């Protein structure tokens, strides 16, 4: 049985109190929302904090509000289940509700938070294992070794970003309010990541994601699709958020295509976006954009699933979403895959 290491749980009731505790305990403290990522990591000895600062009692980071301007404001402490079932999210941003609904199991979604999903640690077959298992192979670059087991000759870690809500938030041009003891500022969600498995987040230590805001989305259609081993519980083998703004003449005015689980950061396929803008969603244009997605996608052996299949499905998901948005066919939200091997 995997057990937690001893730690002191701290439960502040305000953002300021949480920031004070994080600053006081420094590297010995970890922030926790629902604990669905942190607690398994502690059990696996991937992190061993002496203090855990919980955010569940902070009311200021909860709630979903549609502002008169049309902007949607979501608290970082909102649970994934609340996001999934919110009537305003389902009506105005159905792809975000869909992405939340595809995360893990109902029990996990009731505990996990939006901020926790945004700050989700990267994953890898060689990293997300028990300490005993990792010790048996000599550990990996992400934790306790200088060697990346995915690419032993590489000088970097190739663990993958696997959050489901993040590609949708980026495709919707969402921003997050990041609060630190030095101040608070709104940042694009997309700016929170770098292509580095060791240091995937650009957020300063001791930061709290207090709120997320999504600007009004007129004439925008967004689709999120996810491939995984089973129809519930599993992390994505590949996920694709496709967001299109259609002009009155039927041409594409704006396009955002963002993939998850194929790189150490959410991967925006700019080449495919440029292929779409100014054109109608014809079969030829869709195939051309899909080919650019295929060429830009380079999954590695760091999750389950065969690499060629994951690469191919990135293109399939984007093409299906574009056909759905263009009125050519409906697109399913998720698919299963047989394990590789």
In short:
Helices cover 30% and strands 20% of the residues.
- Broad structural category: alpha+beta
Q: The biggest beta sheet, please?
A: 5 strands, antiparallel
For CATH, the homologous superfamily of the largest domain is named as CO dehydrogenase flavoprotein, C-terminal domain
Low-confidence stretches: none
**Can you tell me the CATH architecture of the largest domain?**
2-Layer Sandwich
- How widely separated are the two ends? 27 Å
Mean pLDDT score, rounded?
95
Net shape: globular
> H/E order of the elements?
EHEHEEEHHHHHHHEEEEEEEHHHE
- CATH topology of the largest domain: the name is Enolase-like, domain 1
Number of domains: 3
What count of helical segments does DSSP give?
A: 12
The percent of residues in helical segments reads 25-40%
Number of DSSP E strands: 13
Q: Strands across the major sheet, in which order? A: 4-5-8-6-7
């Amino acid at each position: 049985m995997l057990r937690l290491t001893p730690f002191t749980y701290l439960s502040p009731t305000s953002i300021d109190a949480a920031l004070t505790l994080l600053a006081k305990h420094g590297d010995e403290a970890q922030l926790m929302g629902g604990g669905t990522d942190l607690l398994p990591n502690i059990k696996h000895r991937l992190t061993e904090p002496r203090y855990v600062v919980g955010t569940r009692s902070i009311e200021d980071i909860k709630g979903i509000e549609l502002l008169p301007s049309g902007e949607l404001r979501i608290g970082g402490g909102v649970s994934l289940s609340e996001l999934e079932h919110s009537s305003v999210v389902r009506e105005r941003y159905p792809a975000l509700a869909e992405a939340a609904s595809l995360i893990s199991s109902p029990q996990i979604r009731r505990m996990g938070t939006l901020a926790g999903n945004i700050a989700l640690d990267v994953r890898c077959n060689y990293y997300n294992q028990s300490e005993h298992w990792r010790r048996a192979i000599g550990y990996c670059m992400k934790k306790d070794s200088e060697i990346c087991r995915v690419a032993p000759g590489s000088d970097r870690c190739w663990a993958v970003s696997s959050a489901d809500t993040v590609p949708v938030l980026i495709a919707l041009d969402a921003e997050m309010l990041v609060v630190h003891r030095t101040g608070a500022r709104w940042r694009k969600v997309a700016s929170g990541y770098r292509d580095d498995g060791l240091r995937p987040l650009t957020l300063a230590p001791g930061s709290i994601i207090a709120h997320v805001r999504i600007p009004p989305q007129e004439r925008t259609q967004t689709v999120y699709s996810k491939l995984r081993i089973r129809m519930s519980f599993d992390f994505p083998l590949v996920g694709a958020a496709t967001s299109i703004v259609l002009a009155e003449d039927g041409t594409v005015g704006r396009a955002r295509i963002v993939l998850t689980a194929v790189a150490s950061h959410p991967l925006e396929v700019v080449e495919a976006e440029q292929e779409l803008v100014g054109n109608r969603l014809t079969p030829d244009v869709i195939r051309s954009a899909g080919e650019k997605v295929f060429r830009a996608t380079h999954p590695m052996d760091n999750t389950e699933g065969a690499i060629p299949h994951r690469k191919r499905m990135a293109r399939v998901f984007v093409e299906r979403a574009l056909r759905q948005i263009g009125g050519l066919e409906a697109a399913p939200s998720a698919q299963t895959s047989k394990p590789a091997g």
